[in-house]
Design goal:
The protein is built from 14 helices and 12 strands. With 426 residues, the protein is α/β, with parallel strands linked by helices. It has a domain of 281 residues: TIM Barrel.
């Protein structure tokens, strides 16, 4: 049986469906095309409603929410609001690029790390002050449990720094400041700041130590996200970085060439680079699953279709099918910004080919348009939701909670009503 759902523009004149088979033989019986108007979809109550909570932003922009600090009482109110609006769960970001917004016991660097307080702006100083007052993650897990909300720990995997006009290595962990060979390198040995090369054993060890201490917070699991800001440090064709010592040594062992100075096979190099990323994911998944928690992987809106990691890993192939089939991951979030109808269709159909029982597909839905510097209207947000409902996604992940809290009546309430059975949302 073949099932495919395709979203096309309303003014499309022609639809072409191309089918390929490995043995060049395809037979169909009972083939049927059905046209569905997205606007006929009146609700998404079969889908889960999730929110991205970037705690750094919540504190940094707290005045937009009418409060000077976003601390314990504000976190309590947030989860009460989530319960009121029928939210299924929250992806709670602990990453502040390479530093963190929780009380690490030594595995990670708590913000602002080495940065002089006097060089931080007002919002950043507020974040540093709150992290001295409370452990936001501990409060969040506790309040999520009280309100019947699921909570996943959102960790970015290769987003370890951000440019700053006066502070070098801003938001970078002390680990990476002391182990610069764990950043992706070009052929000249120059690093791409803020990236993480998982072919280096120390990089895997560092990240697993973080996960080990975060497991003790007893959240529902981890959202391991490939989204990154580190590309802001350099232009990258997609194959400019990945010449780290371990990759160089492995290629030389297998193929007897020095990729720093000699011509080499691009695909063989990419596969070696991919193995480090996949090795980390296998070890992290085993550790998380052993604790009884789940693993959700966040990828770009073209990763399933194109089979590459993208972001600062560029054209590196990623065996997402094997990770789903093996059960290493329990679900995927497709998208890291706005997801077009076209890409949503492609990713849904790819996921459908290999998904196992219980695995879920979520789509990222964007509330704020960074390019136009405007917040989408409730109707525009619902148009995104209707597309994902048509594709029968398991849920939607709205980015981010700050925007909903800022306009509860105008955005949060109408969106939440779409996801709930009649009368379920107050």
């Amino acid at each position: 049986m073949l099932t495919a759902k395709i979203c096309t523009p309303a003014n499309a004149k022609k639809l072409e469906i191309r089918l390929e088979s490995g043995n060049e033989q395809v037979e169909f019986s009972g083939l049927r095309l059905e046209k569905v108007n997205r606007n006929q979809i009146t609700d998404g109550h079969s889908m889960e409603l999730w929110l991205n909570m970037d705690y750094f932003d919540e504190v940094y922009y707290s005045r937009k929410l009418g409060t000077e600090l976003y601390a314990e009482q504000e976190i309590k109110h947030f989860f009460q609001l989530c319960r009121k609006r029928g939210v299924t769960g929250v992806f709670w970001r602990i990453s502040i690029h390479g530093q963190v917004a929780y009380r690490s016991r030594g595995a990670a660097t708590v913000f602002p790390g080495h940065a002089p307080i006097e060089q931080l702006n007002e919002g950043q100083q507020k974040v540093a002050r709150v992290l001295q007052m409370i452990d936001p993650l501990e409060v969040a897990v506790r309040e999520a449990r009280k309100n019947g909300i699921q909570i996943m720990i959102w960790m970015t995997l290769s987003d370890e720094a951000i440019p700053h006009p006066t502070i070098p290595d801003f938001c970078m962990s002390e680990f990476q400041r002391n182990h610069r060979d764990t950043m992706l390198m070009n052929r000249q040995g120059e690093v791409l700041p803020g990236t993480m090369c998982y072919n280096e054993p120390e990089a895997i060890k560092y990240r697993l130590n973080m996960i080990r201490e975060l497991i003790d917070y007893k959240a529902d699991g981890f959202y391991l996200c490939t989204r990154s800001h580190s590309h802001e440090f350099a232009r990258d064709s997609g194959d400019d970085y990945g010449f780290n010592p371990s990759i160089v040594a492995e290629y030389k062992r297998l193929y007897h060439r020095d990729i720093r100075t000699e011509d080499f096979d691009l695909e063989k190099w990419r596969k070696i680079k991919s193995r480090g990323y996949d090795e980390f994911l296998q070890k992290a998944s085993a550790m998380i699953h052993e604790s009884g928690q789940k693993v959700i992987l966040g990828v770009a809106a073209a990763t399933l279709s194109n089979g590459v990691i993208l972001g600062n890993y560029g054209n590196t192939p990623f065996p997402w099918k094997e990770n789903l089939r093996s059960g290493r991951i329990d679900g995927i979030v497709s998208g890291q910004y706005m997801v077009s109808d076209y890409f949503a269709s492609r990713e849904y159909n790819r996921f459908l080919q290999v998904t196992q029982p219980g695995q879920k597909l979520f789509f990222w839905a964007q509330i704020y348009h960074y390019g136009k510097r405007k917040t989408f209207s409730a109707e525009e947000l619902l148009q995104q939701a209707k597309t994902f409902a048509f594709l029968e996604a398991n849920g939607i992940l709205y980015h981010e909670a700050l925007n909903f809290e800022e306009n509860d009546a105008g955005l949060f309430l109408p969106v939440s009503k779409f996801f709930q059975k009649k009368g379920a949302v107050q």
